[in-house]
Each structure stands twice: as structure tokens, then as C-alpha cells.
Amino acid sequence: MSLTELTATSRVTVFPLETLTLAYTTQSSDERGLGDIGLVAVVDVLSEGEELWRLARSLGGRNSDADRARWILTQANRARVVAAYTDLPRTTWTAYIRRRIDLDVLFANHDTLLTGRISLPTSSRGA
Fold first, then answer.
1. Distance (Å, whole) CA 35 – CA 38
2. Between the CA atoms of 36, 90, 76 and 52, what dihedral angle is there, to the nearest 10 degrees?
3. CA 11 to CA 1: how far, in whole Å?
4. Does position 1 have pLDDT exceeding 50, yes or no?
5. CA atoms of 119 and 37, how far apart (whole Å)
6. Are 22 and 106 in contact (CB under 8 A)?
7. How much is the pTM?
């Protein structure tokens, strides 16, 4: 499966989850800027993001991709809300998208989840 590259500047929350360092940001599907697309990606140059899905399966105990996607979004949203982790208000990043899951209903203000690997500026990688 090929990776889709996406580069943008936005607020990024970097947080640990088990053995992974993850980054969460949002994108908008149109000019309204609603942030309806959630991007949760592994911060590791050797990753393609599948470790996150394995973690969702083992810890989240979910059976379907949509259930696992909601679990992933819950973890990312939790990390942002508690504000205990690295919050980068305006960071330029590049993500290599491995999976896109379109949810059947809005969840945590997202109807789409993108996952994969993300590259952040070196000074902002610590969680």
C-alpha cells in the first residue's frame, strides 16, 4: 500500500501512548475550517503507523476498523483536553498517511480519521 503525503501547518498535540509517541492534529474538508478530519500519527521515521492499529486492537478490544478508529480518536482527544503533553500551537509537519477511515457518524467532532507516520521539527518531538 502506498503512502499519501500531506504537509500543513496547524496545532499539534504530541503525547505518549504505551511505547508509541503520537501526534494529533486536525484538518478541514472544506473552507469552513471545522477540523472534521482527525490525524493521529506515529512520530517515528521507521513507522508506517500500523503499530497504532495493533495497539487499538489489543488495548481497545475493538473488532471493527470503525470501533478502533473511535478508540484512537478518544485517546488523541483525551491527550489534547488534559493539556498535560506537548502542545505545539502552530507547527509545520509532514504526514505519510497509511489509512483513512470514514466514520458513519460524527465522533469527537471528526467524521474521518487519518493515520500513519508524521515528521515534526526536531525541537518539538519530545512528549
1. 7
2. 100
3. 28
4. no
5. 18
6. no
7. 0.89
The three cell numbers of residue 44 are: 517515528
CA atoms within 13 A on the CB side of 97: 15
Residues 80 and 5 sit within 8 Å (Cβ to Cβ): no
pLDDT in tens, 19-52: 999 999 999 888 887 888 999 999 998 888 999 9
Distance in angstroms (rounded) separating the CA atoms of residues 44 and 17: 13
Instruction: Give Cβ neighbours of residue 48 (< 8 Å, ≥ 6 apart).
Output: 3, 96, 98, 116, 117
* 80-83 CB contacts, 8 Å cutoff, 24+ apart: 80/13, 80/24
pLDDT, position 23: 97
